[in-house]
Design a protein that fits this description.
Chorismate_synthase_CS (chains A, B, C, D); about 400 residues; five-stranded antiparallel β-sheet; alpha+beta; homotetramer; Chorismate synthase, AroC fold; 17 strands; globular
Chain lengths: ~400, ~400, ~400, ~400
């Protein structure tokens, strides 16, 4: 299973093609749009999020609400395209046009963005040619891809949810997640302005975001993704590049502005004794093998254990600030204070949706590749069988 | 560039084949053996590390000290193989053999290892069939592969080094690394019993390891890898799976017992303002573009910036404890206290070498794949040109 | 470099995303449309080709006529979509709809098509769900992808052309291609009704196609692709899956209805002595190394030699015949005479364009992956250098 | 499933690592050695084949006769290594050695080999550095890999066999294969000196080989591989690079000296009407869906139909001739008559074994990747189920 995305931030549309989905999977645009809306929400977003409402069109691979087995193509049109046609058009510029007038050329790289290095790499002295693609706008279609993955996981009895555990140093009480199912968590965070489980922390986060915005600064945070209902044995220990944790880590770090990832107790494991880190193995007639705890976050030896996967990612503060950072104009080589292209003070809630969806994709991909996945019904039967087999092992 | 490894912990040998190396790269077994020795060192290792001295043989792809461009095959023989021939031999057992006598069957899965899930996945009721491969013994050849990668990086003017920054909650003073080159760091950690830059912290770590060993427990820690001398523009922002940070994260998480990874300030970024996280862009005639700081750890937009890459990984405490954890015998379904197969109280120093080498491989791979890499001299010329181009951009 | 395609024959559009193109490559829709038109031409096409005129839209990755380095998205809309919206729509059918009325269900698999096995594989009892994707309609966007590849090759001084060498047993005189450049060949075949170099054979082919059509039958043929101006050393002998001939063969056999491929003298080599098959190596101050002949078709040891690549593919007669073949209705299990969905008597000329373009893609991909290909100017410089290096070797 | 190979023709050993095999597959060295012996046989081989007897050692991934699920490592030692240690050793040459004495340097590229272009590509002026790897000696381990694949196929009820259909223009009577099972074919060709089914043709082939040898020339030929017992639906039509015929074609063209491939009627399809090419679909209660003929060679829409796959490859005459070809010394630029490194007049019988085994690998790989393949028993059950499902469709 694989996908490609295309599209620039102010181009006509974002496009994605997903190849390798099982046939007979129910998909509707409505289900995907729900996630797109969640990605545009969260306290602390700038103006652009409010004016554009992303809607997906399914333009291939789905007929009468079900996947055909052929590649699925999704499109999210840019409502604002009419204002950008000249600036971002694919056609060569007519000879008599004054390029300065329509190109909105950017020669001032923003620290923390791909601008400068991207320009060097691809030979663009107009850094707009970089920032239009490196923009987090592209995560829109990655969320759409993840929505499709979640529909698949759901059919297999697997739930996935994300919540915000930290913003700008304000931490949610970790016990709030304990004992809650993915569905219960989803219900709570859907109602919370920063997609957080802990109402007290949430209030503080909102306050901090508002303050930060006022001072023209930005803040980052930590998001947690939980996957429930997994069969044991997805991934493998036999070769280094088949370990599931490695793949999930790559997925998390592929999100714009993410700088770290950890599973279960994560970096806390550097401060604990072995006897306080590992999860004891239990067995009962009714449930088969279980674990007393889930400190390792659902993975042992690069494989799912059957316990929930718990993985967190850290997002840096958005680098585009009203409070500007020093940089250098690549034409004049003069120093300047970096310009503002967008203005979210905090995008962590939105990023939690992106994280949930890219992790969902990676998980679905691992499952589809491990099993016979031509048709959904066959895949379902195998997952059930694997659950039974593991229990009776 | 790609490689495969094979071999079980007590099998005849570990084998690796590396495909895609440039021709004309100088390689000797001696250089690789140095890293293998470092991997076997560090305070806190058990008995096995002392009796086995790993030595590599080059059995393909190298002639008269230089790579041919053909795949390189490396072998590390198991000195102890003579004692394991019957137990681990490839030939079918003769019919008149009592399997119990020679199989050293394992039916008791150790928590925190691949044992139980691996057995389910591959249908092994003798869990030895799992643990022989899931053992960290396999990292021996991954270190060998990384040694070759480091020889390549060195030819390109790129240095890589690792050091231990935390063990069991004892943290090294982070300022000890400041202003030091990779070579300077290497000299210090080569002399340190736990491969740590900070002598005071090192002494405490040694003490803690000894105590932990006495109580039959284990501790984990954090290792940091630094890569210097990189040209800007390795990796790419244009597609999610081409981001270099994602690839390095996958590499780090592919190391046995690693549970998290972070770049630059890492998880601390969740606690800081944007103005304290991003690195300002400077420019001078002599140096071209530089950054005032390196908080992002050398990567922007999934690409190298030219600043050193700084990446850390967290290793959980080794799950094999004298102080046993509860588990279940898969035959009798009776609970038991998990048995001890190995006995390192702390493998973090050794793991720092593994981390250094797997990261070196991933970095070398990214470079080889981005450039014309048939021959080393051509590759060198391009890297130089890219450095010049970036400076003059 | 990679691409994915999506879209069903009667769906809203065909979509493709190309990832990994160098930046700064000039591309216009006009250039791609030229190939799309050629693909729809050729004597012997049915009615559908005449009513639909395929036009491409560039919806990502290109700005002001040049690639950005980001993925390129291309779309070919289906003009006839308004008549198929209900039949092929992505939305679930409303509950009160009579499915029989709008589904145009197919339960009768056509021999020689993917219908029957595709239905089994993906669980479709409505075989329309198979044939809509397995249709050669999809080659439209593969041709578009190849057009982009040809624009890249052209910038590197590499020309590629195809011509029809055989239809229904009528063979073109092979000497007609001798001594002609790719551009000269293109000029001739552009004017020929069956894209053939030999006017006498062409006239006979046209006649045969007309006869065959009258009798409700179909005929296949052979197409030849020639690539000129290649540097030596693309591909590699060092590992089996890096051989360029293998990759080109896979590309050719990935075209609908193609059943064989051969290089240079091809299957004739089974009938010749070694001394009549191999190409002697010559050298001169002015030209460097050359070959006296090109019987091997431009490849030795899985690598380009610098001589033109000559590769042929055989296309079977289109399986959809007015003269029907026996098959079985999957619902009733009753035998029937297979129905006609399309009616080209001969699609070999069109297939020559598909062949040219899929081979162009594979060749461009091999080059882009072997060299430093972030920017077109850097790639060009390397190719020139490689030509010089080979000459002076 | 993937594998890598390493090793030079006169190096210490050939090595391969196979990753992704199901666990619990029975494998013995004896079974692999049988194929290695067949590869060394066939009328027309030179002296080297007679003195070296290739034997495999299993050095990883197999315990007590069964795969573990971990990567399998195979080694074929070079018996003659003691005579080549200095010439091909991995260690740098001591400074006081006269390189001319021990290097056996080659400066004269042989037409039809990788020598010249390989030297240019990898910067080797000693062309031995090329020919040692580009030699067909490497196919030894590819045969070993294919043997393992055949053991897997056999467990799944799938048989594969090859036979020689043409040598130097002498064609076997194609009707000799009709109605024979793979096992019956194998029995006949095992007894034939040129692995041919037709005794009359075989006698002529032997005669022709002897004559050709006398005149210092060489001849090629055509080999056919047949795979029986396949379930329908391996491969896919949904994306161009998932078509099974493309993958098999790449495999065939990856064999040294192979220049073409065709399925079923192959190039003959260019001379036939559609009604004489396609295979009618039949159905009966007892057998389910069958085909009246097998002209398409077992593949439709890039998928297996359940009929035997029939694929042929053409091998060019071996380029190393006693009767020399003109070439150029790369040092002096003087023309010369190309030297003889080996002296087989005809390697087509041996190549038929290579073809059988590389096709077996590709087929096994396609199956393993399509199904849940962790354990052999689970894979077997799925293949059986798929057969049943297809029959009842």
């Amino acid at each position: 299973m694989r996908y490609l995305t295309a599209g620039e931030s102010h181009g006509p549309q974002l496009t994605t093609i997903i190849e390798g989905l099982p046939s007979l999977l129910p998909i509707t645009a409505e289900q995907i749009n729900y996630d797109l809306k969640r990605r545009q929400g969260g306290h602390g977003r700038g103006r652009r999020m409010q004016i554009e409402k992303d809607l997906v069109e399914i333009v291939g691979g789905v007929r009468h609400g079900k996947t055909l087995g052929s590649p699925v193509a999704l499109v999210v049109k840019n409502d604002d395209w009419k204002h950008w046609t000249k600036i971002m058009g694919a056609d060569p510029l007519p000879e008599d046009v004054d390029p300065d007038e329509i190109k909105r050329q950017v020669s001032r790289p923003r620290p923390g963005h791909a601008d400068l290095v991207g320009g060097m790499k691809y030979g663009h002295r107009d850094l707009r040619n970089v920032l239009e693609r490196s923009s987090a706008r592209e995560t829109t279609v990655r969320v759409a891809v993840g929505s499709v993955a979640k529909l698949l996981l759901k059919e297999l009895g697997i739930s996935i949810v994300s919540h915000v555990t930290e913003i700008g140093g304000v931490k949610a009480d970790p016990t709030k997640a304990e004992g809650k199912s993915a569905d219960e968590i989803r219900k709570i965070v859907e109602e919370d302005p920063v997609y957080c489980l802990d109402p007290e922390a949430s209030a503080k986060m909102v306050e901090l975001i508002d303050e930060t915005k006022k001072e023209g600064n930005s803040i980052g945070g930590v998001v947690e993704v939980i996957i429930e209902g997994l069969p044991a044995g997805i991934g493998s220990y036999v070769h280094y590049d088949r370990k599931l944790d490695g793949k999930l880590a790559q997925a998390m770090l592929s999100i714009n502005a993410f700088k770290g990832v950890e599973f279960g107790l994560g970096f806390e494991m550097a401060r604990k004794k072995g006897s306080d880190v590992h999860d004891e193995i239990l067995w009962s007639e009714e449930e088969g093998y279980t674990r007393g705890t889930n400190r390792l976050g659902g993975l042992e030896g690069g494989m799912t254990t059957g316990m929930p996967i718990v993985v967190r990612g850290v997002m840096k503060p958005i680098p585009t600030l009203y409070k500007p950072l020093q940089s250098v104009d690549i034409e004049t080589k003069e120093p300047f204070k970096a310009s503002v292209e967008r203005s979210d003070a905090c995008a962590v809630p939105a990023a939690s949706i992106v994280a949930e969806n890219v992790i969902a994709w990676e998980m679905a991909k691992a499952i589809v590749e491990q099993f016979h996945s031509d048709q959904l019904p066959q895949l379902k039967a195998q997952i059930d069988e694997m659950r039974k087999y593991s229990k009776e092992f």
